[in-house]
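REQUEST ID: PR-0412
SUBMITTED BY: lab tech R.K.
PRIORITY: routine
TASK: structure prediction, single protein chain
INPUT:
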Amino acid sequence: MEIWINPACSKCRGAVQLLDAEGAEYTVRRYLEDVPSPDEIRAVLDRLGLEPWEITRTQEADAKELGLKEWPREAGSRERWISALAEHPKLIQRPIITADDGSAVVARTDEAVRDALSR
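STATUS: complete
OUTPUT:
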């Protein structure tokens, strides 16, 4: 399993602490430093079963600068959103855990982390 984190994020730190407490084996990806490619973002979206606008932090300064709230949330705009996430990784919701069974979860709660652990 892999967890995408920003070490400055309290939700990320909490998720890592819970993984450690449960004795989970995982790798950490600091996605602001090791930025996911558009293909990796597409793969994670497929695993999550979500669209890019559903994992976008629209309150970030970059999102406001790009005017993301006004962007269409439809299939025809999907690649534009994915490109924005790849170019501005701070916009990616965190933490994201990719589970061993091929699924993924946005692990913002202890319940979501435990869900990933159970897969």
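NOTES: The mean pLDDT is 96.
REVIEWED BY: pending
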